[in-house]
Amino acid sequence: MSNYVTKSGLSVHPLLVDFVEKEALPGLSVSADQFWNGFAELVREHAPTNAKLLAKRDMLQSQIDEWHHKYGPVANNAQGYEFFLRDIGYLVPEPGDFTIETEYLDPEIASLCGPQLVVPVSNARYALNAANARWGSLYDALYGTDAIARDGDLTPGQGYNASRGAAVVRRAAEFLDASFPLASGSHADVTGYHVVKDGSTRHLQVDTPAGRTGLRDPAAFAGYGGTEESGEIVLRHNGLHVILVIDPKSTIGAAHKAGLADVVVEAALTTIQDCEDSVAAVDAEDKVGVYRNWLGLMTGTLEDTFEKGGQTITRKLKADRVYKDANGEPLVLKGRSLLLVRNVGHLMTTDAVMLDGKPVGEGLMDAAVTALCAMHDRGMNSKWASIYVVKPKMHGPEEVAFACTVFDAVERFLGLAPKTIKIGIMDEERRTSANLKAAIYEARERVFFINTGFLDRTGDEIHTSMEAGAVLRKDEIKAERWIASYEDRNVLIGLACGFSGKAQIGKGMWARPDDMAAMLEAKIGHPNAGANTAWVPSPTAAVLHALHYHQVDVFEAQARRHNQPVPALSELFSMPIQAPFSLSREEITRELENNAQGILGYVVRWVQQGVGCSKVPDINNVGLMEDRATCRISAQAVANWIRHGLVSRDEVTSVFERMAVVVDEQNKNDPVYRPMAENYQSVAFQAALDLALKGADQPSGYTEPLLHAARRKVKARDAK
């Protein structure tokens, strides 16, 4: 630690010192001494509590393991299991009815419903793309994906396919007819759009073969830009804006009877800039890179220059869109997503800061530094200067309360108004799911978001029930009633706590970014279930998912569900075990191969290249979005089958070696990829194998400890 800098009794890596003092603090009223003194006090006061909470996780898990050793799966004694969980303090008393009290929430959180992106903030290009995904071309999203069929005359080619383009225009007209119907006729037949002045106000009129008409709901016309006969026309439905781009001189507009060159939709209302599961930040250098990008987003100065299509492109944050409303007054539409930041959980420590020779809690550092960076927001992000922190991997109300206590302390030493830092509760651990109302109660003055997700939640379900028996195959788990119970409980408890019109209820990721036709069919289920928002894997997917929020009035869906009964805890705890000898050796091998290939495909990029989230081809070469949460599921599933004798450790090792050949082939065109099949002792291969072989012994089944150690080893080797 000879090169560390002493700050208020802390040993701080010089890279972090320089970032804080030379980049994050300038322009703020916070002094360096104020920051370091406050941060040091935060660590000294709250690190012991953090350690006690982690120890309690381990204690509760060991007690649950013992129960399963005695009684077997939950189904053998369901009532006794629930009584036991209450007795050990896993289940806590549910609070009486209450309504959340969070103040100063932006419209994107409280009153607007639409898609949400999650993006690794460590990648400036991706971070900017996501921030700019507030608006997107419907024409481009339809033309470039399988949302429009890709066979016959509609097959995309090297150049522009006019037949495919015409199909896109027809599909866009169907959307306009559904969301902005005309008083008579169809948008498909419009020959002209006109903004017409009537006294002091303006309204939209359209020409059709049957004559001039208008919108069935004239109030859906929100504004215009350019001239009154061309330019852009702004429409509004369910709180979301859609822009008709009129440009008869453009290639697309020239082919349209009304010169409609594009339909631009308001898409990703919010974006989580992620410091956690989708990044690979293992040391001070990595963490400073993460913080620097977050700071650039808050100051509005982040840029990234890259080569694309033989051209050099510089990407930066988009400006707001400025129009005139129906009265001719300025209408300013926000040009970017509302940005949230996901901190790490309570588990990991970081040697970017040391106290008494020991690494400090990484979550404590994230809370302090991301809030410091967010203080540079002058209303470009949040009109209230609220700071939206998504907090993952919290186990139960006690840990939620601890996060809120940490935010209290950060606010005090940074001089922020109380409750400036809002908290998003990720409902991804079973102890939180089972105590959700109590968890929300602990954060009732800060909470802005609760979120469910099959991908995250299943890993914890498997680990918590590790000793109950062999788990089902992953595809079978998706259909289990405990999953439906989990999703329903989250929405219904959120509504009972007063979330409707005040805070977000979110749903999880669509994991197949190339399969947009299926997403359009399936993901409408999220707003129909009463979710204000749901995760999508790309800006293009956000544009398409935005259509669902025109089809469904989420607040009506929430009103419909408000008094539905909350599924009982017995439903939540109902995951069955695999019946003995119910699977053939072929089925077992196939499932093992699928899990092994997914783990290897993700881990090799994480360890070798520091890529925390990527589209990884599965065993059938279908691209799936993978992060640590999906990796945790696969690793825990294999670890469980080892524990219960469905597969042996030698068999798992053999399958991983075979799948390494498959993954090497899938990555053969990556110039920086290092094949694993040539060296089964490589750091990447051994890390992937360890996730399975040692998975049952990992804290809560998390992948971070093993992945961080492997990545640090590779970075140290490459630095020599």
TrEMBL record:
Residues 17-68 form the Malate synthase N-terminal domain. Residues 339-563 form the Malate synthase TIM barrel domain. Mg(2+) binds at E428, D456. Acetyl-CoA binds at V118, R125, Y126, S278, R315, P537. Keywords: Cytoplasm, Glyoxylate bypass, Magnesium, Metal-binding, Oxidation, Transferase, Tricarboxylic acid cycle. InterPro entries: Malate_synth_C_sf (IPR044856), Malate_synth_sf (IPR011076), Malate_synthase_TIM (IPR001465), Malate_synthG (IPR006253), MS_C (IPR048355), MS_N (IPR048356), MS_N_TIM-barrel_dom (IPR046363), MSG_insertion (IPR048357). Its cofactor is Mg(2+). Residues 160-237 form the Malate synthase G alpha-beta insertion domain. It catalyses: glyoxylate + acetyl-CoA + H2O = (S)-malate + CoA + H(+). Residues 587-683 form the Malate synthase C-terminal domain. It is found in: Cytoplasm. The modification Cysteine sulfenic acid (-SOH) is found at C613. Pathway: Carbohydrate metabolism; glyoxylate cycle; (S)-malate from isocitrate: step 2/2. GO terms for cellular component: cytosol. The active site is at R342 (proton acceptor), D627 (proton donor). Its main location: cytoplasm. Glyoxylate binds at R342, E428, G453, F454, L455, D456. GO terms for biological process: glyoxylate catabolic process; glyoxylate cycle; tricarboxylic acid cycle. Transmembrane segments: none annotated. NCBIfam families: malate_syn_G, PRK02999.1. Involved in the glycolate utilization. Catalyzes the condensation and subsequent hydrolysis of acetyl-coenzyme A (acetyl-CoA) and glyoxylate to form malate and CoA. This is Malate synthase G. It comes from Devosia crocina. The lineage of its organism: Bacteria, Pseudomonadati, Pseudomonadota, Alphaproteobacteria, Hyphomicrobiales. The gene is glcB.
